[in-house]
Amino acid sequence: MGYDALLWLSFGGPEGPDDVMPFLENVTRGRGVPRERLLEVAEHYQHFGGVSPINRLNREAMAAVEKQLAGAGMELPVHFGNRNWSPMVEDTLAALTAEGAKRVLVFPTSAYGGYSACRQYDEDIERARAAVGDGAPELVKIRQFFDHPLFVSAVADGVRAAHASLGNEPGIRTVFTAHSVPESADRASGPPSEGGRRYSRQIAEAARLVAAEAGIAEYDVVWQSRSGPPQVPWLEPDIVDHLDALHASGVPGVVVSPIGFVSDHLEVIWDLDNEAAERAAEHGMKFARAATAGSDPRFAELVVELIREHTHGVEPRKLSSFPVAGCTVNGAPCAIGCCEPAKRPAR
């Protein structure tokens, strides 16, 4: 049995000033985040006219994938659905169901494991199928791809280009960043039998692979975009704090590669292109931010190759010893207890 469509499943983002607060309320629903914190984050979006680039970047990547599919003679329409903003995944799945789709591949816009990077997309799939009800198509989620050679080479070329933009000056430090998560979430990432920390270990492995591809002997892995209360431990160090430490040790400049993200959405352009770049400038450090993989032509090739693993039985390509993971059906987790969400305290 073949597939009727590809569902491109992403986070979503506001596309105008009036969208910002409703979007943030969707993102934080059920989490008890204080309104003053939402207003603070809203200012980041308003800095860019209330528009996150994430939807545009997703549509551009989808168009590139559709072109690659057509060039390969593959008839697989690509449909867009989001967790937090229109087009909502529930609405997209309802439309696919009305069109008669029976079996659909799902591409989540994350390369890694962990709750927010993988398991939450399973929850999106389960929720969307429940909303549609009887007749909802079978949804097969595509695997994690952090160690795929096309992803690694695209990120590595971005790092090389960033170093070249600084004249390949000696002493420039390469710093890889990814979205921070609570320590408890990282400990719970992956199946319990694996010992946890699949997310941070995958980030570290991706950084190692990219550094090797780019010919970089020394580099750092740090975190960004923390959003939790100060009393809850999150993965550290934060990129801005790390810049302070590098400056104190005499490092003249940095190339920052947001390896944990597939596109230049708002957390990348705010946390790195604004806050981190400004801190580097305060220290008189040179700063260049490497491109993410999503704008590279190899990203569309990667997605099509991941699709062909399902449609044509293509053998999965990977550069690490991590198991192939993340491919699930109808929102079931990869394994019992895999990436369990944090239990919220009873009120």
Key descriptive features of the protein:
single chain, 347 residues, alpha/beta, Rossmann fold, 2 domains, four-stranded parallel sheet, globular, porphyrin biosynthesis, Ferrochelatase_C, lyase, ferrochelatase activity, cytoplasm
Number of strands: 8
CATH domain fold name of the largest domain: Rossmann fold
Spatial strand sequence of the major β-sheet: 2-1-3-4
Strand content: 5-15%
N-to-C CA distance: 47 Å
Give, in order, the helices and strands: EHHHEHEHEHEHHEHEHEH
CATH arch. level architecture of the largest domain: 3-Layer(aba) Sandwich
Helix content: 40-55%
What's the total helix number? 11
Overall pLDDT metric: 95
Detailed description of the structure:
It catalyses: Fe-coproporphyrin III + 2 H(+) = coproporphyrin III + Fe(2+). InterPro entries: Ferrochelatase, Ferrochelatase_C, Ferrochelatase_N. The chain has 347 residues and is α/β, with parallel strands linked by helices. It has two domains: 5-146 and 296-329, Rossmann fold (3-Layer(aba) Sandwich), CATH 3.40.50; 149-289, Rossmann fold (3-Layer(aba) Sandwich). The protein contains eleven helices and eight strands. It has helices spanning 20-27, 35-46, 54-71, 89-98, 115-132, 149-165, 183-187, 198-214, 239-248, 266-282, 297-311; strands spanning 5-10, 78-82, 103-108, 138-141, 173-179, 219-224, 253-257, 286-289. The strands form two sheets. The protein has a four-stranded parallel sheet, sandwiched between helices. Strands 6-5-7-8 form a four-stranded parallel sheet, with helices on both faces. The longest helix is centred in the first third of the chain and has 18 residues, at 54-71. It is globular, with a radius of gyration of 20 Å.
